[in-house]
C-alpha cells in the first residue's frame, strides 16, 4: 500500500499497450495503492480497437496455478479468478494435456497439484475471453483506456519526465505530444517503443515456422481423438501439431516445422491464399493420420495464419530513466514457450506492487528487474528445449510426458 508522501503521488503514468501485461499493471496499481496518498493518474493507450481480431485473438492459452508466481494466482489476487474459470473452455487442463504420436496413440496422462488453495492447477481460456475480462475489470475500476491510439518516439527530458507522441488511427493519423513521469511499455513483441530506444534489440528467429487456424465441427462432432483434450501430436519426422479447444465447437491447431529462413505472412489474405495454406498444411503434416487432414479442411478461413517463431532475451532497466518495458515488449517468447500469458500477468502485477511499496522509483524498478529477468530467462530456456525435442527426427517423449514438465509446456499460439 502506498504511503503518504509516496514518490508517485499525483504523478502521471502512461501505459503503452492494453494487452495482458499492461492492463494487469494498471489494475494492480489501482488495487494496491490504498487511500493514504493521492493516486497517480494512469492512462492506457492501445493501437488496436476494443473489438477482437480473430486472427490475432482467436486462440486459447493456458493459465497455470501450480506455483506462487503463475497467472491464476495473480488473477486470484486481482479478484478475477472466478470470472476466468467461468470463461475457460477447459479446467484441470494439466490432467487433460495429451501427447499423441502420429497415429493418435496417446501417452499416459499426468497431473500436478494446484498451489495452496487454488481450485485448479491450470485452465485453457480463449485469448479474447481473458482480454475482455481484464479490459472490463479495468473499466470498472475507472482506469482510463484510449483505443486506436499508438505511442511512439519516447524521449527522456531534462526534468526527468518522458515525452511521447500519440498517433490517432481514427483521425487520419493525427498526432499530439504528451508527457508523463513514468512510461510503462507493454506494446507487444513488435514494440515500436523498443525500436526507438533499443534499435539493436530485435526479435530473433528460432528456426521454427508455424501455420494453423481454428477448425469448427458441425453439431459439435469433435473427433474422439481430441475431444476434451489438448496437447501435441509429435512425430519422428520433424513436424509437430498443437491442438486445443477454443469453444464447444472449435479447435485451434498449429502445425510447426523447422525452416532455415522465416516466411512473412501474406500482405493481404484471399480465398486462394487461404486454400493454398491449407493444402501446404496437409502436405507438411501428411505423416499425421486422420483426423488431421479433416481438421485442416474444417478450418474457418478467417482464422488461418502463418508465422515465424520469434523470441528475444529480456533486459533490465538500469540505463533507462522513467521507462519500464514489461511483457512481450521486453522478452518475447515463441509459441512453444507456452508461458507467455502467465509471465505477462506476473510482470504487470510485480511491477505495480514494487512501485507501491518501494521508497523510490529506482529501488522499485531494480527489485522488479531482479525477479522478472530470471523468470523470462527460465521460460526462454525451456522453450528452446521444447523446440528441439518436438521437431527432432529422434523423438524424445520424456521432454513432454513427465509430470514436472507440465507447466513448462503450456502452449498458446501468439500473434502480437
Name the helix and strand elements from N-terminus to C-terminus, one letter apiece: EHEHEHHEEEHEEEEEHEEEEHHEEHHH
- What's the Cα radius of gyration? 21 Å
Q: CATH superfamily assignment of one domain?
A: FAD/NAD(P)-binding domain
- The CATH class of one domain is identified as Alpha Beta
Q: What integer is the average pLDDT?
A: 90
Q: What does this 3D model show about the protein?
A:
There is one protein chain. The protein is α/β, with parallel strands linked by helices. The chain has a domain at 12-88 and 126-202 and 312-388: FAD/NAD(P)-binding domain (3-Layer(bba) Sandwich), CATH 3.50.50.60. It contains 11 helices and 17 strands. It has helices at 20-32, 54-57, 71-77, 81-87, 127-140, 192-197, 271-284, 292-297, 340-357, 361-390, 398-401; strands at 12-16, 41-46, 60-64, 90-91, 97-100, 122-126, 144-147, 149-156, 162-168, 175-180, 182-185, 204-216, 230-234, 239-245, 250-258, 305-311, 323-325. The strands form 4 sheets. Strands 5-13-14-15-12-16 form a 6-stranded mixed β-sheet. The two termini are 33 Å apart.
Amino acid at each position: 500500500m502506498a504511503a503518504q508522501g509516496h514518490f508517485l503521488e499525483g504523478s502521471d503514468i502512461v501505459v503503452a499497450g492494453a494487452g495482458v501485461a499492461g492492463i494487469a499493471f494498471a489494475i494492480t496499481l489501482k488495487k494496491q495503492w490504498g487511500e493514504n496518498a493521492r493516486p497517480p493518474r494512469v492512462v492506457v493507450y492501445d493501437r488496436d480497437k476494443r473489438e477482437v481480431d480473430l486472427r490475432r485473438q482467436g486462440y486459447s492459452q493456458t493459465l497455470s496455478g501450480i506455483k506462487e508466481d503463475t497467472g491464476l494466482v495473480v488473477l486470484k489476487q486481482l479478484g478475477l479468478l472466478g470470472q476466468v474459470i467461468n470463461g475457460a473452455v477447459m479446467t484441470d487442463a494439466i490432467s487433460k494435456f495429451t501427447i499423441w504420436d502420429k497415429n493418435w496413440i496417446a501417452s499416459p496422462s499426468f497431473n500436478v497439484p494446484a498451489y495452496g488453495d487454488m481450485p485448479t492447477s491450470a485452465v485453457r481460456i480463449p485469448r479474447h475471453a481473458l482480454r475482455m475480462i481484464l479490459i472490463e475489470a479495468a473499466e470498472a475500476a475507472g482506469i482510463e483506456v484510449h483505443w486506436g491510439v499508438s505511442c511512439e518516439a519516447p524521449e527522456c527530458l531534462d526534468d526527468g519526465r518522458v515525452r511521447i507522441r500519440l498517433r490517432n488511427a481514427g483521425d487520419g493519423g493525427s498526432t499530439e505530444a504528451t508527457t508523463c513521469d513514468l512510461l510503462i511499455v507493454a506494446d507487444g513483441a513488435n514494440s515500436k517503443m523498443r525500436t526507438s530506444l533499443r534499435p539493436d534489440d530485435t526479435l530473433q528467429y528460432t528456426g521454427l515456422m508455424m501455420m494453423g487456424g481454428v477448425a469448427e465441427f458441425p453439431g459439435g462432432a469433435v473427433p474422439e481423438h481430441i475431444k476434451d483434450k489438448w496437447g501435441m501430436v509429435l512425430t519422428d519426422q520433424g513436424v509437430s501439431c498443437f491442438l486445443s479447444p477454443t469453444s464447444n465447437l472449435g479447435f485451434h491447431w498449429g502445425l510447426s516445422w523447422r525452416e532455415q529462413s522465416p516466411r512473412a505472412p501474406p500482405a493481404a489474405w484471399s480465398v486462394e491464399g487461404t486454400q493454398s495454406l491449407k493444402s501446404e498444411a496437409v502436405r507438411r503434416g501428411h505423416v499425421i493420420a486422420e483426423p488431421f487432414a479433416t481438421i485442416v479442411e474444417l478450418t474457418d478461413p478467417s482464422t488461418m495464419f502463418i508465422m515465424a517463431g520469434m523470441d528475444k532475451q529480456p533486459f533490465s532497466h538500469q540505463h533507462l530513466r522513467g521507462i519500464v518495458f514489461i511483457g512481450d515488449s521486453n522478452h518475447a517468447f515463441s509459441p512453444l514457450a507456452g508461458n507467455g500469458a502467465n509471465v505477462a500477468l506476473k510482470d504487470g502485477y510485480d511491477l505495480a506492487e514494487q512501485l507501491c511499496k518501494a521508497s523510490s522509483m529506482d529501488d522499485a524498478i531494480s527489485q522488479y528487474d531482479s525477479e522478472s529477468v530470471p523468470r523470462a530467462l527460465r521460460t526462454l530456456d525451456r522453450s528452446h528445449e521444447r523446440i528441439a525435442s518436438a521437431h527432432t527426427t529422434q523423438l524424445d517423449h520424456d521432454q513432454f510426458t513427465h509430470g514436472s514438465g507440465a507447466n513448462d509446456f503450456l502452449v498458446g499460439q501468439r500473434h502480437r
